[in-house]
Amino acid sequence: MTTALDYPLTPSPLAYRADDDLAAVREQWGDLLTAIGQRPLPTWPPRERRGYLDQLAADDRTEDDEQTVEPVVGRLPLTIREHPAPLNLDALDAAVEVERALFGLADRVAEQVQRSVRTVRDGRGRHLTDPDDAADPARWQYQAPTSPGSRAYGLHWAAVWIAGRVLDEDDVGGLFTSMPARLLDEVAATARTARRTVERALGRDGRTTDLAEPCPWCGGQLAGHTRPGGEPGVTCSTGPDCTAPVETDRRGRRTWKAAELVDLWVALDAARRRTAEA
Question: pTM of the entire structure?
Fold first, then answer.
């Protein structure tokens, strides 16, 4: 028997972590869909983060690289949406995997916390499904043979809807009950896996990549770094003796982050040009 102790009274740290992970998936979903239409590049930084950098080195890009794909969030699930042939199968596989995981999770959450559709009596005293309650926009609609249900609104809606149940948001119509602790564990685990899948496909999973070109200021080895949920950065192995006009990290390495990467990319591009002209 389920008791009141099985239900958290207020959102727990686990609930807030699940909400953060779901938000990270939503915020990076457009980048992942864009990556599906672009050939994967074995360079750093991840292509989805280098658009403004590539513009500064446009003369060194190939004709194929100049064909950009605008970020499209998309509403229909990838499994039923018409889209051009993918150029990055890893990104496509990751997107399909995450969609299926979150859509399936929303179904299971709805089964446990969403109230069944109410019935009303017609003029003949018959009990019929309440059409207004059935069409409540806050209700998660299951997939059917003739309809994708709430899947038609895309992954964003699924993630937002699940987060609302996790945080036990205000429910004026009494449509939902609080989420059981065991279900919260499943939601948190699924959300964390989905986030890692998206970030791994985008190269944002904490990897380090040695850059082929040396530091323009000292000739040291440059390394690109990514971290989950954060902006990429580059460090120089020379340390504080490097004359690059940027601060050092805790290990004493010159480090480029955020807008500083533009200056690094310009310097690297200038070095390429000097080498080509020599």
Answer: 0.71
Determine the average pLDDT of the residues in 64-87.
53
In the block, residue with structure tokens 């690094």? 264
Distance CA 250, CA 29 (A): 32
Given phi > 0 = left and psi -120 to 50 = alpha, else beta, which region is 168? Answer: left
DSSP output for 95-157 = HHHHHHHHHHHHHHHHHHHBPPPPEEE-TTS-EEE-HHHHT-TTSPPPPBTTB-GGGGGHHHH
Residue 117, burial from CB neighbour count under 10 angstroms (0-12, 13-18, 19+): middle
Residue 158 confidence (pLDDT) above 70:
yes
pLDDT digits (tens, 9 = 90+) for 175-217: 999 999 999 999 999 999 999 999 999 888 878 889 989 999 9
For the four alpha carbons of 8, 9, 15 and 19, in that order, the dihedral sign comes to positive
Closest CA to 159 of 198, 116, 200: 198
Phi, psi of 147 (to 5 degrees): -155, 140
